[in-house]
Amino acid sequence: MAIPKVSREDILRALQYIDENGIPDKNRSARYFLVYENGKSYPPKYVIAAANHLANGSAIETDGYNAVEAKNYLKSKGFTITGNQQKYALTMFLWTYIFRARMDR
């Protein structure tokens, strides 16, 4: 399944829907986030699934497309997407720590 074609207005309605109903734990994002004007961040795949639900009455499903596809689709609609830099920074810190520990032996 390809990314459902939803409009920018559908996506904005999805953000409001998510604000009112929350994000199920299984739909939280670890890598990318749509950051909206209000400063809140949203998981891209879930945003598209919620927008499709509101526009077409379909079930909220995130299967059939990946996070990169969702990120790119939302960017094409003019939304700001950020990556999780903290995870990268923590990984680099741990690798540096492990490397130094081995060098000190």
Cα Rg: 17 Å
Beta-strand percent range: 5-15%
The low-confidence parts are: none
**Principal-axes shape call:** elongated
How many structural units, i.e. domains? 1
What is the helical fraction, as a range of percent?
Answer: 40-55%
Characterize the biggest β-sheet: 3 strands, antiparallel
Largest beta sheet: what is the strand line-up?
2-1-3
Q: Which structural class matches the secondary elements?
A: mainly alpha
Could you spell the SSE succession in H and E letters? HEEHHEH
Distance between the termini: 52 Å
Arithmetic mean pLDDT: 85
Report on the structure:
The protein is mainly α and 105 residues long. It has helices at 8-21, 44-56, 67-76, 85-103, and strands at 32-35, 41-42, 80-83. Strands 2-1-3 form a 3-stranded antiparallel sheet. Helix 1 (8-21) packs across helix 2. It is elongated, with a radius of gyration of 17 Å. The N and C termini lie far apart (52 Å).
Short overview:
By secondary structure, the chain is mostly helical.
Per-chain topology:
Blueprint: H1 8-21, E1 32-35, E2 41-42, H2 44-56, H3 67-76, E3 80-83, H4 85-103
Q: Descriptors for this entry?
A:
single chain, 105 residues, mainly alpha, three-stranded antiparallel sheet, 4 helices, elongated
